[in-house]
Amino acid sequence: MRNFSLTIFMSLLLTAAGCSRPVVLTVTDEVINPCYLGNGVEWDPYDEALSWGSEVSEADWNTLFERLDFMKPQYVRCMINSPFTYFDGNGFDDNRNAAYLKKLLGYCQRNGILVVYGEYNPPTWEMKASTDWVKASVKHLNWLVGENGFTCIRHFVIFNEPDGDWASPNGDFDFWKGMVQAFQAEMNRYPALSDVTIAGPDAVIDYKNRASAYDAKGWLSATVADVPEIGIYDMHAYPGQRYVRSGEFLETLKELKAVVGDKPVILGEAGYKYFSDPADSALAQEYWKRVEGHPFTKGGDCNMLVYDDFYALDMPLLLMSVMNAGFSGAAAWMLDDAMHSSGDSGKTEDVKLWGMWNILGSEVFGDPSQEEVRPWYYTWSLMCRHFPAGSKILALSGDLPVGVSAVAAQLPDGSYAVALVNVSEQNRAVQLTLPPPGSGYTLTTYKGALESTPVEGRCFILPKQSFAIFAKE
Q1: Is the dihedral of CA 440, 2, 323, 201 positive or negative?
Q2: Any idea which architecture 7-33+393-471 has in CATH?
Q3: Distance between CA 146 and CA 4 in Å, rounded?
């Protein structure tokens, strides 16, 4: 991490501004979400590492654990590819290539992290309706939960993005509904799975498969109306920058939240795609410029802008929309580049470069710099650790200027946390009022580096192009 002190900078700004004409924000007692489940990441068990010719070493695992210890994810979405794990092409073996999955789930179990677990697809496309697969998949789930004690698994995804034309259901809602019923019936046979519910529909916001009767909102509405087996609703989102910064994405999420009412809905995957909106064209051009001639991605499913400081502002902005819309959490796509190749090919020339690092940068890709932490890890980590499970998401009153966004919560210990992002080109003085007065709060700011400073009173400067958390550490 690049180190420099913001303390003097902040003090000078405060003195100069005197908090004159500040942005006045008040944390109200209006509850948006009474029991937030928390924020987290997609963390899959390195299914392809062995096919890439490398193991994830103990040193690598220790590095991962240290980084996650700082992040404190409240939930993890963990998905497997069965041809790399318990399906060998001919039959099913629960122990096959299970070491990394058990390592990952062991960390989640020890740290009380809720896990949304599942399978991307059936072992083969032809097996998508196979009762043999249903039985083997649920048996494998029971092997994890019942036999290995990974009770951190609370929800189960049976198909990734079944609305997509890239998925085996190919947008067939009735087929997916029937498979949910088949999986639930099989799960009912195992007492250890009584506390595990199916998550769905796992559909992609702002996408419509031509072969499907429904768009994303239609999938969610039909699921609420016709699939009572679902224990938690989940959707995926890959908006563009203008869409989020304009507030339109927040309104879309509010519409989806209204469909499910008081029941929880989460984003199982969340990231940015900068291609569909003309307003993001400069970002798209930079993306493809970086893809050209890249040694280990062809750009088919990646985000070449995860290296940039602005992405460290975009991701918490997305999360603020999630929280202010009444959703119950989001998992960032994704933790680590070393988890997937495009199309699950098992090859290294087109990896899904989306992560906070690539833990196999040296061993597989010959580039140690890829193992370094990228900027958005820090801001996403702060959103995980300062808005823990059980928090109440609260409404803010006050007029936010263009370019400034905020979200607030009361934490289980009774203290408050307020996150702010300033993507404008002006420093902003902020005057913040909490419901009860309190002391011991700090302001943690990210603007190229991470710095914390005690806050006297409730007046502080939010630097331009920065992210900040006002909270007790």
Answers
A1: negative
A2: Sandwich (2.60)
A3: 49
